[in-house]
Design brief:
mainly alpha; 70% helix
């Protein structure tokens, strides 16, 4: 792909996602069929070229969507090193450009990143260092901290889902159990620490919108951690209002700590809906 090809993709992508009529969308779909229905691994390099060089959110969304299909449909054709390179590329991209990207582009990139992590969970021991790698986002800036919390939140949600990619239910449960044992408690602690700093005003940002985003995403992360299917018995349509959590014994001290309950009560008493409902 070159600059001329990129300009073509950007123009047609806009017609695909923001068409004047159905006919324009159909024409764009045909023109971009290679990206919308990837059948060749060469498309991978094209998606990265678009992400690296395009400022068009429509082209970026197309690249992220195409990458998701490549991962879903051709996962077994990639060796562990190539899978890790994709994961690290997306982490680097989000770290460098994610906080400037459009919301729907960020969502698409988070989706494919977490898909790669889950499908390749047992490929390498590097996944054991995942929490530390994402924690670097939290230490960089407030904007990066929001991104880091979002990555954690999406990852916990994905790991808790039973139907992801071509993994069998048994393998998905193995991945979820390994993630629970190696990462989930650390992630929950991170959500509590972030919330505590915001509630106690230890972290003063001077930006009310950014502070609200941090509260929302850290509170959502804590909730996702507590709703995790710890013992693998929740049905697919389990309610988010489940009142009983079967946490491992290693969680008990943190759960029973009065400061943990006090934190959520403080949030409830000093927040407005929907944040107060989440805290409750």
């Amino acid at each position: 792909m070159n600059a001329q090809d990129l300009a073509f993709v950007e123009g047609v992508s806009e017609k695909l996602y923001n068409p004047a009529n159905n006919a324009e969308r159909e024409q764009a779909t045909l023109a971009l069929q290679t990206f919308l229905q990837p059948t060749q691994l060469e498309v991978l390099s094209q998606t990265q070229y678009i992400l690296d060089n395009s400022s068009s959110p429509y082209a970026q969304l197309l690249a992220a969507t195409s990458l998701t299909k490549i991962v879903s449909e051709h996962w077994n054709t990639f060796n562990p090193q190539a899978r890790m390179e994709m994961r690290n590329y997306l982490l680097s991209y989000l770290g460098n450009r994610g906080f400037k990207a459009n919301e729907y582009v960020v969502k698409a990139l988070l989706r494919v990143l977490c898909l790669i992590i889950k499908l390749g969970w047992f490929d390498t021991e590097e996944h054991g260092e995942l929490v530390g790698q994402i924690t670097k986002f939290l230490q960089a800036s407030a904007e990066h901290c929001v991104l880091g919390l979002r990555i954690f939140g999406e990852l916990v949600t994905d790991m808790n889902q039973r139907k992801v990619g071509n993994l069998s239910l048994a393998n998905q449960r193995r991945v979820a159990t390994s993630f629970r044992d190696s990462c989930l408690l650390d992630i929950f602690r991170i959500s509590l620490t972030t919330l505590s700093q915001l509630v106690s005003k230890t972290a003063v940002l001077g930006d009310a919108t950014l502070e609200d985003n941090l509260k929302d995403f850290s509170l959502n992360l804590a909730l996702e951690c507590l709703m995790f299917d710890f013992i693998g018995t929740a049905p697919d349509d389990a309610s988010n209002d489940t009142a009983t959590i079967q946490v491992p014994s290693s969680w008990c001290n943190l759960i029973q700590d009065p400061a943990t309950l006090g934190l959520f009560l403080d949030l409830y008493l000093n927040a407005t809906p929907p944040r107060s409902k989440q805290a409750l």
